[in-house]
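Our preliminary data section would be incomplete without showing what the modeling component actually yields. Below, a chain of 254 amino acids is followed by its predicted structure, encoded as tokens that our downstream tools consume directly.
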Amino acid sequence: MSSNRFSGRTALVTGGGTGIGRAVALALAAEGARVVVAGRSREPLDETVALIERAGGTAVAEVADVSRAADVQALVRAVADRFGSLDVAVNNAGVFRGAPLADLCEEDWRTLLDINVTGVFLALQAEIRQMRTQPGGGAIVNIASNLGRHKQVPFAVAYAASKAAVASLTRGAALEYIADGVRINAVSPGASDTTMSLRPGETEAERAVRMKDQSPLGRVSSLEEVAEAVLYLASDAAASLVGTDLVIDGGAAL
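Predicted structure:
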């Protein structure tokens, strides 16, 4: 049963067309939030909106590239203009590029930085500027990773570096803006039920067998489990959590 923790609040989810972003958007809407989902491709965003509306929720899709400052500023302005406030922001948009470090092409490196790091930086700037004008402030949750700050694996060094930067941005921004009523935290998922956790050519069944050995929990995290962690950090129940990095990986980084 829904607790309506976010009734009357407006939430923005970047990368809201698929995977963790879609799961978070659905969960926020189920608990009363008006949800704006953003991403670079219209079709998956519209699919997320349709799922939310079919369940009785309110959602809007906005096409935006988080690596472009003008897009991000226009996105946050559109959210505030349409609904009057931005109460929750989930900076989830991200990409993975994997290769041994010496073999990673410069284009892939720049893509990781542009979307995973600069995208979060630009989103934080625009969201903070809006939230600190609001009497109730706001809550921001960045999606980092258990790779980077918590764990390293071969062939993901560049991706891990980009997500370690997200963790650092989270802690620094949290310290700077909590006095303005803007509370910032991060969730760091490990392998979860998305295509990103599949190795090239691997099936979900084969992944399940591999995870029995690789994760102390013995499985990937469900999207609903990751979404619940995000909602907790964004909710009033986590009011004293500032700069927290909540790892959801079944113990893989221990």
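The first helix runs from residue 19 to 30. The mean pLDDT is 96. Preliminary results of this kind motivate Aim 1 of the renewal.
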